[in-house]
Amino acid sequence: MVRKRKDRSASEPAAATAVVMVLYITDSGPNSLRAVANLEAICKEHLQDNFRLEIIDVLEYPLRALADGIVVTPSLAKLSPSPAATVVGNLSDRSGVLRALGIAE
Amino acid sequence: MDLALPRSNPALSGTNAERGFKKAILRLVKGGPERLAIEAGQIDAIIDPVSGNAILLPEAQRALIERKVGFRSLIGLAFDWYWEQDERYRFVSHRGAADDADGSTEEGIIGKALWDLSIDNMSEADWRTHRQQLEWRVIFRDLEIRRADRAGEVRYLSISGEPIFDDRNQFKGYRGITRDITERKHAEALVGPHRLARTILDALAAPIAILDQDGVVLSANQAWRAFAATHSGIGTGVVAGSDYLAACDNACAAEQADGTAIAAGIRQVIGGERALFRYDYACDSAAGRSWFALSVTRITGNGNASAVLSCEDITERKRGELLLGLEFTVARCLADAGTAAAALQAVIRAICETQGWDCGRYFRLDQSAGVLRFAESWGVPSAVVGQFLEKSRGMVFRPGAGLAGRVCQSGQPLWVLGSTRGAGVSPTALAPETGENGACVFPVTAEDKVIGVLAFSSSDVGEPDDRMLQAVHSIGSQLGRFLLRQQTVDALRRSEARFRVLNDLTSDWYWEQDSDFRFTQVVGCSAFGAADILGMTHWDLPNVVPADGGWSEHKSQLAARWSFCDFEFATVQPGGTHAYYSICGEPVYDEAGAFTGYCGTGVDITKRKRAEIALRESEARLRALAGPSSD
Description:
The complex is a heterodimer. By secondary structure, chain A is an alpha+beta fold. Chain A has helices spanning 30-47, 62-67, 94-101; strands spanning 7-8, 19-25, 51-57, 72-73, 75-80, 85-88. Chain A has a 5-stranded mixed beta sheet with strand order 1-3-2-5-6. Chain B folds into 5 domains: 10-73, no CATH class; 79-186, 2-Layer Sandwich (Beta-Lactamase), CATH 3.30.450.20; 213-310, 2-Layer Sandwich (Beta-Lactamase), CATH 3.30.450; 320-490, Beta-Lactamase (2-Layer Sandwich); 507-614, 2-Layer Sandwich (Beta-Lactamase). Classes of the chains: A alpha+beta, B alpha+beta. Chain A binds chain B through residues 25-34, 36-37, 40, 58-59, 62-63, 65-66, 70-74, 86-90, 92, and chain B through 1-3, 5-6, 29-31, 33-34, 36-38, 40-47, 49, 52-54, 56, 59-60, 63-64, 67. Strand 4 of chain A pairs antiparallel with strand 1 of chain B.
């Protein structure tokens, strides 16, 4: 079983503005792959390197998702800055994701 | 990354079972957004709040299964068996697509360590090394073993493995893969010698080709291919698949004789009539004429291959032989020639014929005038060449002017090749009239001095090599010595001629005697026939009467080896009259100083002598008449 985990942070993170996120996925499920791709595109366009992302495969760490209150995958949890927000689905709703991340279009 | 969306909404297109499953899932999910996402087909799994396990939705489940199947398929391409061993290195699992192929089935191998199996290529030392690797828990790769399969056929296997540790880092055994490399090993064993043979064949400098029984080239090395591509004549364009015998049979013009001989030799070798055939022949290329020694040897017991052809480049040796032959020819011409002119013509002709040049000319250095003057020439029968040589008559070169003048001045040979001829060549230079492309001019030397220049003109003048320059130097020296000697001989002849003329003016004949004073040679003597005088001393001759003093005085002079002059004697003629002669002579000595005889000249003084006698008789008569009156 492959453990898939990504951590990214800005080379010079600004603690006040860095966006901290966790993306819960299911191995190589089609929606999970789509969600990863959509989120990568949004981060590249709007956050550059000013974010920290952790990707959790629920097949590998199911209890972690349960502990974090995640019910379905893929789900994106924005932890900071406040307010916290969660987006479910493959993140193809770009506007919804940007709103959740607090990014003005 | 651009991932495709699911092709269809599973909520709409799934089977009844899937739809039922999805309804059950929706009951588990309370949140609105989650339910909407499930309805939209954007969810792969839900987390069971009771067990904490992820429950895959049908679409994701299919994707994962397909991916695993694909992965296994790919893995299957990389190895033939997957195996696991316990902490004592005994096989606990051994699976693969070819389980039945080599007897490595679960039954045959499970519970045994690798060294418990019948493997015949591993020594005790090899096993010790392998077990040490395992004890050190290292990853091992490509351990090659050889064992017989169920059918008794030898199989070669390559094994790689890595250690397994549990969560507490406790060693649990090894797992790894095995690949069947039998075919590869067989291929290596089969191809190896052939590849080596091909590599060696291509590395050889000599062109080599292998013929079948019909004379078709089965294989040719790199040198042969280059040879076939760059030389004209026999073998041009003959590569693998070409009929070499046909090429020989169809050779025409200058190569016809060579082609016929080579084809006959090859057929004899292929037919088993001879084991080896050798033949030397020439080929032309852009670099000039080359000579090759062709060797044909027979092959037996090797499929279609019947003969091996190899060509050795013997150009250097051949050119050396030709130039050596030329030097001998020049020496023979000089030995046979009676005159300098004949020698020059013969030498020029020999050089032209050997080198394939059109014509040559000799310019003699006129020491008194300090210029080169045309002396002799020879050329092939051609109107153009004849015209060129005719124009050369009367040509004069000052030292340093034109090729001949430059060679005379420097004492070094000069070569004009093709387009380079124009540079530095004066209007009086050699060969412009014929339109030839090349010229070769070299000095003729004697006693380290240039006494003349030989100039050759032809389109075939090529770059001289060291051997050619050596030959040119040798020929120039030989010819120079000959011409100098010939000049000396001519001077001596002229001197002798002048002496003879003077001698003829002062004497009537010439004579020689041996150490016993017997005549050995008499030239121009009218007093005696040669048969009457040769072998006899002067005093033994019949009817010879010495003048004053008799023979005793003359003999004492000869015994003392003195020169004598005007020794007079008379011969009694058939009518009783006398003829008078006067001879002069001097002793002759050889190089060691030993006396070898006398030589001298003779003069007929009969008229003078008779006049003296008549005068004396007249005086006597007058004295007789005047005597009584005076008394």
